[in-house]
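# nightly structure sweep
# worker-07 picked up a monomer target from the shared queue
# config: single-sequence mode, recycle default, output format = structure tokens
# input follows
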Amino acid sequence: MASFAPIAKEPSYLKVFKSVESLIFSGVIKEGAALPTEAELCQQMQVNRTTVREGLRMLEQADLVERGAAKRFYIKRPDAEDIATATSKRLAFGGVTFRETCQALHSFYPTAAVLAAEQAKQVDIDALRAIIQSHKNEASSKKTVEHAVAFFNALALSLNNRVMLAYMQSLNLLIHASLAKVISKTPNAKKRILKAQSNIVDAIERGDTTDAAHWMSKHIDDLKRGYTVAKIDLDGKVR
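# output follows
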């Protein structure tokens, strides 16, 4: 006969978080509206102040509320960066691996390069080239990491698509911490990154979707090889 595990009880602060989150997402509480005071929330929800404060802290971390005047919390609409930050934190906390991240990059970024080749404006292309040029003048591994991530973020911005922007930025945040080790351990890392980026931008400017996807795929493949060279376990968890 099958046996069943006990159903876990949720902490009260998590119930506070979910209750308010539900009202926000359903539109009952509008953007910019003030939440009741801590004392009022305690009374309405029949919980203690510590529970309310922890629930509010979770809402703030999820970028659903922000502190305002008189210690009140106000509903905010998360932007793409907020969503990306929250998503990357949850993925990392959930134990996502480097292999899973690389697979997502390989599936997602060539498509982004194709979209950029189809619709990027000259101002977007100029921004990408400016990042490449700035990267050429820097020598440190730290700066190479910053420029590599800045390039991907600028590419995401060129798509004019908030969904793509949020997910690309979340992936960028996931790989950011490990890139320093990869770049410091991989021979000619800066040269290889600059070559790939330059070819990607050239293809985007020509409107060549095939070449844009090709060079982006090579770029991501190079990153995956870098993890191997740096002896980073692909099945290890992203931190």
